[in-house]
Write a structure and sequence with these properties.
The protein is mainly β. It contains no helices and nine strands. The strands form two sheets. It has a six-stranded antiparallel β-sheet, with no helix packed on it. Strands 6-5-8 form a three-stranded antiparallel β-sheet, with no helix packed on it. A hairpin with a 2-residue loop joins β5 and β6.
Length: 115
């Protein structure tokens, strides 16, 4: 798929990969182009009931869109309840971790970029 061929394109289905924590991560591939398509990476996170993601800390800034489910998000060691419809921003270097204490999977859309 090329941006030069089509300016609007359905992105191919991303393959979920099982992480050591038990969560699943699918990084979506953006179209090929001579110029960068976007200055960010886009992914889908699936956290089954009872699973806690590995603590994550990185130089990128990140935004999460919680699509479904509920659980406990810890940022910098401070926990808070999260649920579908909420959005979160993490600045560079802030450790974050998500625990699904609910009965349905948590689905998160994540976008990250270097500042």
């Amino acid at each position: 798929m090329s941006v030069t061929e089509e300016f609007t394109a359905l992105l191919p289905e991303a393959e979920f990969k099982l992480r050591p924590s038990g969560a699943h991560l699918a990084v979506l591939e953006l179209p090929d182009s001579p110029e960068p398509v976007a200055p960010f990476t886009f992914a889908h996170i699936h956290v089954p009931p009872g699973v806690t993601t590995a603590a994550d800390c990185h130089p990128e800034r990140e935004v999460w869109f919680v699509r479904s489910g509920s659980g406990v998000l810890s940022v910098g060691g401070v926990p808070r309840r999260v649920s579908a419809g909420e959005h979160f921003f993490y600045d560079s270097g802030h450790t974050h971790q998500l625990h699904n204490d609910g009965e349905e999977p948590i689905e998160v859309v994540s976008v990250w970029w270097l500042p």
